[in-house]
Amino acid sequence: METAEVTRSSERTKVVRQAKKKNMRKAVTISLFTAPALIVYLVYVIYPILSTLNYSFYSWDGTSDKTFIGLDNYVQLFHDAVFWTSLTNNAWVVITSVFVQIPLGMIMALMLFAPIRGIRLFSSVYFLPFLMSTVAIGLLWVYMFDPINGIINQLINFLGFENVAWLSDENTALIAILLVVVWQFSPFYMILFKAAMVGIGEELYESAEIDGANSWQKFFHITFPLLMPTIVSSSILAIVGSLKAFDIFYIMTGGGPNHATELMGTYMFKQAFINFNMGYASAIAFIMFLIALVVTILIQVVDYNRKKKGAF
Amino acid sequence: MVQSLRKMPLYLIGLVLLIFTGYPFVYMISTSLKDQSTFFERPFAIFTSIEWGNYADVFQMGLTRYFLNSILVSVAAVVAVMLIAALASYPLSRMNFRFNRGLFLLFISGMMLPIHATLIPIFKLSQNMGLYDSLLALLGPYIAFSLPISIFILTQFMQEIPKSLEEAAKIDGCSHFGIFWRIILPMLTPALMTVFIYNFIHLWNEFIFALVLVSSPENMTLPLGLQDFYGEFSVNVPGLMAALTLASLPMLVVYLFSQEKVVKGLTGGAVKG
Q1: I need a labelling partner for A66 at 20 to 30 A (CA). Which of A78, B47, B52, B247 fits?
Q2: Angle between the B63-94 and B189-204 helix axes, to the nearest 10 degrees?
Q3: DSSP one-letter string for A13-47
C-alpha cells in the first residue's frame, strides 16, 4: 500500500517532469525559430520607434548633447503652419487614392473583360507603370511637366494655349503630382479588381440576361456589390499607403514650391537631415506613427463590426 | 455594323487608357534615342532617329556600379528574408503557444508602419555601428521592413499544408527543424517565389533608406544614383531618359517573360491564389 502510493506519486512527478521537459523543449524550439526574425525586428523596428519617441522630447542637432524640453516640440508642431499644410496634403493623397485611383483601377479592370479586340495588349500595357521605380517615374514626369520643353506644355502650345508652369506653380504642383501618383498606382488596383471579377460566376450574368437586364443593370446589381470586399480592402491599402507617401514628392518638388506639396514625410526629412532639428523631426515622425496606428485600429474596428453584421 | 458601332465607346476608353498608361514609356524610350537638337526641334517625333550615344554616356557616368550595388543588396536582403521569415512563420502557423497571436500581430503590424518613424534612430545606429555609408547599412533595415509582408504571405500558405504530413514525420522521430527543412520548406516554393518577387522589386526601387544611409557615389543604389544623375544631367534630357530606360529595363524584361508570376508577386498578399 505504502509502496504503491510512493510509486504513484513518483510516477506523477515523472509525468509532470516529462511534460515540463516537453514544454521547455517546445519553448526552446519556438524561440529558436522566431529568434532571428525577432532580433532583426527589435533592432530595426521596435527600438527605433521607442527611440524616436524619446528623441521627440529633446532639442537636438544630432551630434552635440541633447537638451530635454518636454513637450515643447509637440507644442511648436501644433502651431506650425507648414505642418498643418503637410497634414492637409497627406489627406489629399488619401482622398485621391480612394476616389480616383480605385475607381480608375476598376474601370481598367472592367476594360479587360470588355468584348473588344486587343485585350492582351491592353492588359500588358496598363500594368506597366506599376513596374517602374518611383524615382524613375518622378524624374520622367518632371521632364514631361517641364515649363518650356516638357511634352505636356508642347501639346498645350500646339493646341494654342499658354504654357503652364505645373510643378513650379503653387496652384498646380499638387494636382500635377497627384496625377502621377494615380498613373503609378491605378494598375495595382486594376489587378486586385481583375482577380475579384474572375471569381464572379458567369451564371449570375446569364440569368440576369434572361431577365432582360442591360449592361448597366448588370454592373450595378451584380458586379459592383460583389466587388465590395475588394473595394474595402483596396481602400485600406490606399489609405495606409498614402500616409507613407514620400518618394515621388521628394523627387518631383521636394515639397515646394513654398510648401505647396509638402507632406509630413518630406517635412520630417527636411527637419532631420537638412536643418538637423532631430528632436523636432522626431516629433513629426512620431505623429506620423500615431496617425498610422489610429487609422489601422479604426479600420480594424470598422472591419470587425462590418463582418459581425454579416455583410460580405 | 450596329454591333461594332456600339463597341466604339469601349474602344475609345480602351485607347485613352492605353495612351495614358503607355505614352510616358514611349516618350522616355524615344527621347533617349534622340540627340539634343532633335529633342528640342521635334519633341513629338517617335523613333525617327536612333542615336545610341546617350547610352554610352550613361555607362561612362557609372550606372553599372549602381546596378551592381542594387543587385547585391537586394539579393542579399531577399535571401535572408526568405530564410528568416520562413523560420518564424513555422511556429506562428503550425504550433500552439501562448504568445502566438500577439507575436504574429506584432510582425504584421509592421506593414502599416511609416518608415519615417524609424529613420533617425536607424541613421544614428548605422553611425554607431560604423556601417554608415556602406551597403551593409542598408541590409538590416531592408530585411526588417520586408519581414511583415513575407511572414504574412508565408503563414497564410503554411496553414494550408495538412498537419498529417508532419505527424507522420514526428512518429518517424523527425525533429521540428527536420520537419521544417525537409517537409515544409520544399512545399513552400511557390510562396517563397512570391516573397522573392515582391521584396526584390520593392528593394530594387527602395529610396528613402538609401537616401539617408548612403552618401558616396560608389555605394549608391540605382534609385539614389538616378537622382544623382538628375543633378548632373539636368540639361541633357535625352541622356537622363537613357538612364531611366536602362534602370527600368530589368523589370520590363522580367515582366515580359513571366507576366503572371510578376503580377502575382507584386500584388503580394493582396490577391490570393
Answers
A1: A78
A2: 140
A3: HHHHHHHHHHHHHHHHHHHHHHHHHHHHHIIIIIH
Nearest to A55 by CA among B3, B258, B117, B74: B117
Domain A81-308 superfamily per CATH? MetI-like (1.10.3720.10)
Q: In order along chain B (273 residues), what is the average pLDDT of each group of 10 residues?
A: 72 91 92 82 76 84 89 96 94 86 90 92 94 94 95 90 80 83 88 90 92 93 90 81 90 82 71 46
Residue B21 confidence (pLDDT): 93
Contacts with B7 from chain A: Cβ below 8 Å? 115-116
Is the Cβ pair B103, A34 closer than 8 Å? Answer: yes
Q: Name the CATH code of domain B62-270 (choices 3.30.930.10, 1.10.443.10, 3.40.50.300, 1.10.3720.10).
A: 1.10.3720.10
Q: In chain B, which residue's Cα lies nearest the Cα of A238?
A: B112
Q: Is the interface score ipTM higher than 0.85?
A: yes
Min Cα–Cα distance to chain A from B55, Å: 16
What is the amino acid identity at position A113? Answer: F
Cell numbers standing for residue B17: 487608357
Question: Is the Cβ pair A44, B144 closer than 8 Å?
Answer: yes
**Which of the residues B28, B34, B105, B112 would you substitute to probe the A interface, choosing the one with the greatest number of A C-beta atoms within 10 Å?**
B112
Confidence of residue A25 (pLDDT cuts 50, 70, 90): confident
